[in-house]
Design brief:
six-stranded antiparallel beta sheet, 14 strands, about 300 residues, elongated, alpha+beta, 2 domains, single chain
Length: about 300
C-alpha cells in the first residue's frame, strides 16, 4: 500500500465552522469600516466565500474585529482576516510564523491580498484525517494495552510467568489430553486462551482503517471521501495516508460502507470498537475494512 505523509495543524482553534450557534453570517457591508475594503477584495479574489463573525456581535456586527471565511462544502473555516493596527492580517492554519503563529500581516494592500489568496486554502482530506487518525491510534493502543494486561493477569492467576514456561506447556498438554487439572485452573486457562486470541486479533486488524468523511458536494449530492490511514504512524501533527477517493451512492464501496457507518454512528464519539473502528464525529469515521489494505 503506497502512502504519503501530510503535516496538519494540531491546534483545535482552526477546527471550527459555521454549523453551530457560535457564529453568524454577515455581508461585506457589515464589516468594520477599516476592514470593509479588504473584505470586498478578498471576496473577489476567492471564489464563492461567505463571511462570519462571532455570534456575540449579533446586535453590533460592525464592531466585530475579525471576519471568518467559509466556502460551501468545507467543514471548517478557511481562516480569517482582520486589521492589526495599520496592517491587513490573515490568519490561517497554512501559515508558519514563529513570531506570530499562523498569522501574516502587511501594510501593503496588494501584498495582503496575495497573502489571503495564498493561505486561505481549502481543506484537503488528508488534513481532515489528521486529528481523527491520532485519536484512533490512541484509543486503539489503549484497548490493546488493556487486553495485554488482562492476558498477563490470567497467566499470573495460573501461576506462570509466560506461556513459554515448561509448567504451562505441560498444563496445556494435560488439558489437550482431556486429563483432569481442576475446574478452577481449567477455567483460568480457557480465559487466558480467549484473551490471547482477542489480543492477537486486535493487534492484527485495524492498523489501516478507512478514514471516511461524509458530506455533500458543491452540487448538494451525498458523497464520501475515503482514504486508508496508517494508524501506527499517526501523530499530533502528521498523518500517513493513501490518496483520497470520492465516492457517491452509485459506487459499490459507498453502499458497502453504509451498514458499518450505521453501527459506528450509534457509538460514543472516539470510542474504539473492535472489528468496526471508531466514530470521531457525526461526519468523520475510521472504519476497519475487511481486508485492511488499500482502496480498491
Amino acid at each position: 500500500m503506497n502512502t504519503f505523509t501530510t503535516y496538519y495543524e494540531g491546534s483545535p482553534e482552526f477546527y471550527k465552522g459555521p454549523n453551530n450557534d457560535s457564529y453568524i453570517k454577515v455581508s461585506v457591508k457589515d464589516a468594520q469600516l477599516d476592514l470593509r475594503s479588504f473584505a470586498r477584495e478578498v471576496a473577489k479574489k476567492l471564489w464563492n466565500i461567505d463571511f462570519y463573525v462571532l455570534s456575540h456581535y449579533k446586535e453590533r456586527v460592525h464592531e466585530a474585529l475579525e471576519l471568518f471565511i467559509h466556502t460551501k462544502g468545507q467543514p471548517f473555516f478557511l481562516g480569517s482576516i482582520y486589521r492589526d493596527g495599520n496592517k491587513f492580517a490573515v490568519r490561517s492554519r497554512r501559515i508558519s510564523n514563529n513570531k506570530n503563529p499562523n498569522v501574516t500581516a502587511s501594510v501593503n494592500f496588494k501584498t495582503a491580498l496575495r497573502n489571503a489568496a495564498k493561505h486561505l486554502q481549502l481543506w484537503d482530506v488528508a488534513e481532515l484525517a489528521g486529528r481523527p487518525a491520532y485519536s484512533y491510534r490512541l484509543e486503539r493502543g489503549t484497548r490493546i494495552a488493556t487486553i495485554r494486561d488482562e492476558v498477563s493477569a490470567s497467566l499470573e492467576r495460573i501461576g506462570v510467568v509466560n506461556e513459554k514456561a515448561p509448567a504451562f506447556k505441560y498444563l496445556l498438554t494435560e488439558i489437550n489430553g482431556n486429563r483432569y487439572v481442576g475446574e478452577e485452573l481449567r477455567a483460568d486457562v480457557d480465559k487466558y486462551m480467549q484473551q490471547k486470541a482477542a489480543h492477537e486479533e486486535l493487534k492484527g486488524s485495524g492498523r489501516f482503517p478507512l478514514f471516511v468523511y461524509v458530506s455533500k458536494d458543491t452540487n448538494n449530492y451525498d458523497c464520501m471521501d475515503v482514504m486508508h490511514i496508517d494508524a501506527d504512524f499517526a501523530s499530533s501533527d502528521t498523518v500517513r495516508t493513501t490518496i483520497a477517493k470520492r465516492l457517491y451512492d452509485w459506487d459499490a464501496l459507498f453502499q458497502q460502507l453504509l451498514p458499518k457507518l450505521s453501527v459506528l454512528n450509534v457509538m460514543k464519539e472516539r470510542e474504539y470498537v473492535n472489528g468496526a473502528g471508531m466514530k470521531y464525529s457525526d461526519n468523520m469515521f475510521l472504519v476497519v475494512s475487511d481486508d485492511d489494505d488499500g482502496v480498491a
